[in-house]
TrEMBL record:
Annotated source species: Glycomyces tritici
SUPFAM superfamilies on file: Class I glutamine amidotransferase-like, Homeodomain-like
Superkingdom of source: Bacteria
Signal peptide from the UniProt entry: none
All copies of domain HTH araC/xylS-type, residue ranges: 221-302
Keyword Chloroplast attached: no
Parts of the chain that traverse the membrane: none
UniProt KW keywords: Transcription, Transcription regulation
Protein name (record): DJ-1/PfpI family protein
PANTHER family reported in the protein's UniProt record: ARAC-FAMILY TRANSCRIPTIONAL REGULATOR (PTHR43130), HTH-TYPE TRANSCRIPTIONAL REGULATOR RV1931C (PTHR43130:SF3)
Amino acid sequence: MSEVVFLLVPKLHLLDLAGAAQVFSTAADVLPSSRGSACYRLRYVADDPEVPTAQGLAVKAETAWPKLGADDLVMVPGWRSPGTAGGPRLSASQARNLYDHHRLGGTVASVCSGAFALGQSGLLDGRRCTTHHDLQEELARRFPEASVIRDVLYTEDDRVITSAGIASGIDLALHLVAVRHGPAVAARVAREMVVFARRNGDEPQASAMLRHRSHLSDAVHRVQDRIDAHFTKALPLPELASATGVSQRTLTRQFTEATGLTPLRYQSLLRLERAEHLIGQGATVDAAARAVGFADARMLRRLRAGAAA
């Protein structure tokens, strides 16, 4: 049995903790047991027996650090306000325990601002890491020896694994399950959790659906809703304009002003992003092109080449 130890700090985010914990708990349910024991045992440790969360619900924890081996994992969920003025710091014993666990062959991981805890322990020096997109500059400033990778879901460098914001902890945990038990087991865990798909670590933190939503045009948001829901289908501009109640010319102008893209270009980005995910999961370019609505793979290849240029 492997121990999965969550190191809890005050004001931790519940989803940072619960998302990853659910993955390992579900993995323990779906994997065959050995002599009646689950493959994972979850533990929660902190300096105090009760830890307040950012969402107002206190959680219980052990105060004694468990004895761990190289097969065990220590994970640090993120917390609110990790900046220089408001972020909590690990105690000296917590930082030492993290560092020693890694030094003795164990794996250490973080979710969101939990990367700051790994930095305080010296585990980010000389290593690739990431965190929530709003915190990346601060992480790089506070730990200049770290190599902060922008706009990825998670990084892995010599048994130090860091993930981006909040829900990406689920992707990180599914990745660890896939590494240990194979992608089929990780896929089964994802299905049990009703997670749409296990994302690769190098996928962007903000999808195209999110990157082009920071505008105030209700009409354009309605068009985006329609494209988001049906991007694998043909969506002629006259049909989109009619559904919005404006002329084609007006729709194109408003959409471009709000997003920097034409409706067709926005739809192509969604198709490309989904196709890249499918290819990353093992699909051929031809199969991915058909799945996202292209008649053949030529357009997908052109889009991929343009994105790489």
